[in-house]
Design goal:
The structure holds three protein chains of three kinds.
Chain A (H helix, E strand, L loop, with lengths): L13 H9 L16 E6 L8 H17 L2 E6 L5 H10 L6 E5 L3 H6 L6 H4 L2 H10 L2 H6 L1 E2 L2 E2 L1 E3 L6 E6 H6 L9 H11 L5 E4 L9 H6 L19 H15 L12 H9 L3 E7 L3 H7 L8 E4 L11 E3 L3 E5 L6 H10 L3 H11 L20 H11 L3 E3 L7 H17 L4 H12 L2
Parallel strand pairs in A: 1-2, 1-3, 8-9, 11-13
Antiparallel strand pairs in A: 3-12, 4-5, 6-12, 7-9, 7-10
Helix pairs in contact in A: 2-15, 17-18
Chain B lengths: L12 H40 L2 E4 L2 E5 L3 H7 L2 H35 L1 H11 L6 H11 L7 H8 L14 H27 L2 H9 L4 H29 L3 H6 L11 H11 L3 H30 L4
Antiparallel strand pairs in B: 1-2
Chain C lengths: L1 H30 L3 H4 L14 H8 L2 H32 L5 H13 L6 H11 L7 H24 L2 H9 L4 H30 L2 H6 L8 H8 L7 H36 L1
The chains are: A alpha/beta, B mainly alpha, C mainly alpha.
Protein name (chain C): Carbohydrate ABC transporter permease
Organism (chain C): Alsobacter ponti
Keywords (chain C): Cell membrane, Membrane, Transmembrane, Transmembrane helix, Transport
């Protein structure tokens, strides 16, 4: 039998012959995604018909592009956590879309399996000269693998960040949460009152790890520069775990929320259950919209606290990037659409209508960013430009397992009385690190 | 029980033999498509699964033959043994809840007469639903917010909202209860049919003999219902052992892996973590356990009926 | 005493009915509430201002196409499974077949092995065959999963039909095919319907096969679309419960219409073995 290599699809393989005997081959037609020359296909988590602010802007950009170029843009939305997997499978089957949304943390896996075109040779000279230098370097650099630019980061965002209610903070005489962990733990404890809990942490999500976010308070050194691993039994990890324990001891993190996905935290934040919560920054408007237990105007954002005298921590990612499939039959049109999402006008639109940080830094000089509507975006921009900002390494090994394993550890740290060292040691051995 | 075709009267021995061969050809040809489908969709993947379990395949990239190392890694990982334990807890927990409930339901259905049929129909409605939809529905009902249905029922008794799905002690019983909610009435069909087979005279004779209700149940109903209970046990064991959709929908295996059964571990390893070599190793283990269960039950059931046709 | 027992029985049965139907009514109720009423305390069973906004949102997201897909896949699978299965069931009773005993064990055994344990290798095979993410992937798999059941069901039925009936038809000058068509099939209706109804429920309700074998949005089935719905923008419980209602109605209606055959089929099957 042939080996099941993803790139070795050979219709004459013995295996296929055996299978074809049973499952009639004449059925082979009817494959989805037949494509005409004047259309491009996009895989993203957004829906072309969606009603979220981001989706509306996306739709508007598509409409603009279609009107100008006469190229039809077909959006095929996918579950966000499966985009990379499905893209790799689709490349192997030669039915990949032209453009695909990929998380920065999964780029190396996709790059290693081929299928992404080098944007350095595809992007227009104007875009390379004007747009690229105008974007955030920490993001754009991460998409360059051995000189190949495999994707463009979109909506530079601090990803996981602290949302808080100003009204709750006011009750204890504060404007914003403290930016050092010792003071933060104390404040979070004080914010716990009645049925309200100080801090909501997602404890069960495939692409979010609160433990890593707490650790980010030690800065970029938490990732080993050579291996991309985190030292899970090192002093910093232990300190982070003990900090979570402190939060639990003060009632600031609930033992009854051991299995909470980001969505659960969001649901409960809306109901007024938390004073502060870890949240995905681009959901700011969503949180405002569903606010039931508090006044939406009281919602604000903060960086993560740091340890010692380090600057406030902003771990950028996982965030979205957009790649071009090397198999695309319509590269020119696909690249044209890709570039159109990064024009200054488009950046302005993402910022104004969806509260996203503009990809093009130059548009921040627009007077609109001084208005109160833009306060949150300006705050995000400041965090991004600060000293504490850093990203996940280009290659984090076992990225498909990392978040699951660390979330189980986080659940154990919150929900059990076991010492943190053996909990972390177990995570380390599960990952084989 | 082979059957000689019909138009044979008066034919010579040789032509009978010819006709029998022709008939056998027709019969085999008629069964052929069904067998082909079974082979293509059940047997061949079983072999591919075994073959893949001997290779290191990660995220669709095949890195070659690794012998039994996927299996040795699997069995030396305490998480695997924990998952096997959770599978047993789920399977037998669900059985322990479902079978008595089904028996009660079946007795009630029989007792209620025509209204019993209505009761059975109502109880079966969840069985017609999709497991993942059921999970979604219960997740909403169990939402630990004051506006949640379950929380508001607790509130009537003065109990504050609890988060069953988030509590390592309660998550497994809750997942079991939801799985049983969907499936127990199916077992009631079979038990109710079994009850219908028990001759009424026996009960009449028993009450003449002065047996109490409990005695009648333990001395007549249970022994005579044993075959039906065995069928129910076999069907439910296999179905619960492989249940994964309710877990995916309700708890994602948590908290602290308390609902991570072997089936869920397969889902996570193979389809989420994309460690497809190891995922296939888990699939092989599950396949073998299923096979073992099936062979065991065929033995038990076959022994009872004195062999298949 | 007897009256009390009877009353207790009725109360217990009613309670059971409430536990079973309550959650479904709650889903319906939620699906008709506007966003700001969904989390109301205390919860209300009858929505204050019923709204169809969540159902409209489902339509806007194209969930009706997923509904259509689910229907087509299920019907296709059922048609194929019942046809192939009934033919095999008939042949296994009326014809000598090579390796009959082994085949019977094969059909029985395969029926018990859930497709789930084979999903990962099936995915690999389907990718190789070019069947992955096509309109045929699910009908083929569902048909294969349901078919052993159809064989089992129809075989049990055909075994119970006296051979004389068929012989009489042949004597009357019918061909074998005509005899089967005119005499045997009408009598087999309950068995066929019960296999078909079960097959439809199985296919319609599957999530795990659909989510691992398809990825194009225009091929998606209803349960997959529904889970996708709790995707990236956070949960929208109103729309989700509207989806639950939409996904639950067809199988429940089908079950209610065919309950006689479904219940009868399983009851008979278990008694006859």
């Amino acid at each position: 039998m042939r080996q099941t290599r993803y790139d070795a699809i050979d219709r004459r393989s013995a295996l296929q012959g055996a299978l074809a005997a049973g499952v009639a081959l004449p059925f082979l037609g009817g494959r989805a995604g037949a494509q005409s020359a004047d259309s491009i296909r996009i895989w993203t988590f957004m829906s072309a018909e969606g009603q979220s602010p981001r989706e509306k802007v996306f739709k508007a950009l598509i409409d603009d592009f279609q009107a100008k170029s006469k190229v039809k843009v077909v959006v095929e939305s996918q579950p966000f956590q499966e985009l990379e997997t499905k893209f790799v499978a689709a490349v192997a089957q030669k039915r990949a879309p032209d453009l695909v949304w990929l998380r920065d943390t999964f780029l190396s896996l996709v790059v290693d399996r081929g299928g992404l075109a080098d944007l350095n040779t595809e992007l227009s000279p104007e875009f390379r000269q004007q747009a690229l230098p105008d974007m955030f370097n920490v993001f754009t650099q991460k998409s360059v693998f051995d000189g190949k630019r495999v994707s463009l980061p979109i909506w530079p965002s601090p990803a996981q960040i602290i949302f808080y209610r100003k009204d709750a903070l006011r009750e204890i005489g504060l404007e914003a949460p403290p930016l050092g962990w010792t003071a933060f733990v104390d404040v979070a404890g004080k914010l716990t009152k009645g049925t309200r809990i100080g801090l909501g942490l997602p404890t069960s999500d495939n692409s979010v790890s609160a433990l890593v976010n707490v650790m980010s308070g030690f800065g970029p050194s938490i990732f080993d520069p050579a291996t991309g691993r985190i030292d899970l039994t090192g002093a910093e990890a232990v300190e982070a775990a003990k900090t979570v324990r402190d939060l639990v001891a003060r009632g600031a993190v609930s033992k009854t929320l051991l299995n909470a996905m980001g969505d659960d935290i969001q649901d409960q934040f809306a109901a007024g259950r938390f004073a502060m919560a870890q949240a995905f920054a681009p959901r700011f408007q969503q949180y405002q919209k569903i606010a039931a237990g508090y006044d939406p105007k009281e919602l604000a954002v903060s960086a993560w606290p740091s340890f010692g005298s380090r600057p406030p921590a902003v771990l950028l990612g996982p965030y979205w990037t957009v790649g071009l499939a090397s198999t695309s039959q319509n590269k020119a049109a696909a690249v044209a659409f890709l570039e159109s999402m990064f024009s200054p006008a488009a950046s302005m639109k993402w910022a104004k209508e969806a509260s996203l940080i503009p990809d093009r830094r130059s548009v921040m000089s627009d007077p609109w960013f001084n208005t109160s509507d833009a306060a949150v975006t300006a705050a995000f921009f400041k965090l991004l430009s600060g000293d504490g900002a850093f990203v996940f390494p280009q290659r984090v090994p076992d990225i498909t397992k990392l978040f699951n394993v660390l979330n189980t550890s986080l659940q154990e740290i919150i929900g059990t009385d076991e010492k943190v060292e053996p909990i972390l040691a177990r995570a380390k051995s599960t990952l084989g690190w | 029980m082979t059957v000689v075709p019909i138009k044979l009267a008066g034919a010579s021995a040789r032509s009978i033999e010819q006709a029998a061969r022709a008939s056998r050809r027709v019969g085999t040809a008629l069964v052929g498509p069904a067998v082909a489908v079974i082979v293509a969709v059940h047997i061949v993947p079983a072999f591919i699964g075994f073959y893949s379990s001997l290779r290191r395949i990660f995220f669709f990239a095949d890195e070659g033959f690794v012998g039994l190392s996927n299996f040795s890694a699997l069995f030396s990982d305490p998480i695997t043994w924990q998952a096997i334990g959770r599978s047993l807890a789920f399977t037998f927990g669900a059985l322990a809840l479902a079978v008595p409930l089904a028996l009660l339901a079946a007795l009630a259905v029989r007792e209620l007469g025509p209204r019993g049929r209505l009761l059975l129909t109502i109880l079966l409605v969840p069985w017609a639903m999709s497991p993942i939809v059921v999970a979604l529905l219960w997740k909403w009902i169990l939402l630990p917010s004051p506006g949640g249905l379950f929380a508001s029922i607790l509130a009537v008794f003065g109990i504050p909202p609890v988060n069953l799905l988030s509590d390592p002690a309660w998550a497994m019983p809750t997942v079991i209860a939801v799985a049983v909610w969907r499936t127990f009435a199916f077992a009631a069909i079979i038990l109710s049919a079994g009850l219908g087979q028990i001759p009424k005279d026996l009960y009449r004779a028993a009450s003449v003999d002065g047996l109490s209700v409990v005695e009648r149940f333990t001395k007549i109903t249970l022994p005579l219902l044993a075959p039906s209970i065995l069928i129910v046990l076999s069907m439910l064991t296999i179905s619960y052992f492989n249940e994964v959709q309710v877990i995916i929908g309700l708890t994602s295996g948590g908290p602290i892996r308390s609902t991570t059964t072997l089936g869920y571990q397969l889902y996570i390893t193979g389809f989420v973590e994309l460690d497809q070599g190891r995922g296939n190793a888990i699939a092989v283990v599950m396949f073998l356990i299923n096979l073992l269960l099936i062979v065991g039950y065929i033995q038990l059931l076959g022994g009872r009926k004195g062999g298949e046709a | 005493m007897k009256v009390i027992a009877r009353a207790a029985l009725l109360v217990a049965s009613s309670l059971a009915a409430i536990i079973v139907l309550g959650p479904l009514l709650w889903a319906l109720s939620t699906s008709l509430k506007s966003d700001n009423h969904i989390f109301a305390v205390p919860p209300r069973w009858i929505p204050d201002e019923p709204t169809l906004v969540h159902f409209r949102r489902l339509l806007a997201e194209g969930v009706h196409w997923s509904f259509l897909n689910s229907t087509i896949y299920a019907l296709g699978a059922v048609a194929a499974a019942v046809l192939v299965g009934a033919v095999a069931g008939y042949a296994l009773v009326r014809y000598p077949v090579f390796g009959k005993r082994a085949l019977l064990v094969l059909f029985m055994g395969v029926m018990a092995i859930p497709g789930y344990a084979l999903l990962l290798p099936t995915q690999i095979a389907f990718v190789k065959l070019g069947l992955f993410d096509t309109r045929l992937a699910l009908p083929i798999l569902y048909a294969a999963h349901v078919m052993p059941f159809a064989v089992w069901m129809t075989r049990a039925h055909f075994a119970g039909v006296p051979r004389e009936l068929e012989q009489a038809a042949l004597v009357d000058g019918y061909s074998r095919l005509e005899a089967v068509w005119k005499v045997i099939l009408p009598g087999a209706r309950p068995a066929l319907l019960s296999a078909a109804a079960f097959g439809f429920l199985y296919s319609w309700n599957d999530y795990i096969t659909a989510t691992t074998m398809l990825e194009s949005p225009d091929l998606r089935t209803l349960p997959v679309a529904l889970i996708f719905f709790q995707g990236f923008h956070g949960r929208d419980w109103g729309a989700l419960m509207a989806g639950v209602v939409v996904a639950t109605l067809p199988p429940v209606v089908l079950f209610l219409v065919f309950r006689r055959y479904l219940i009868g089929g399983f009851a008979e099957g278990s008694v006859k073995g």
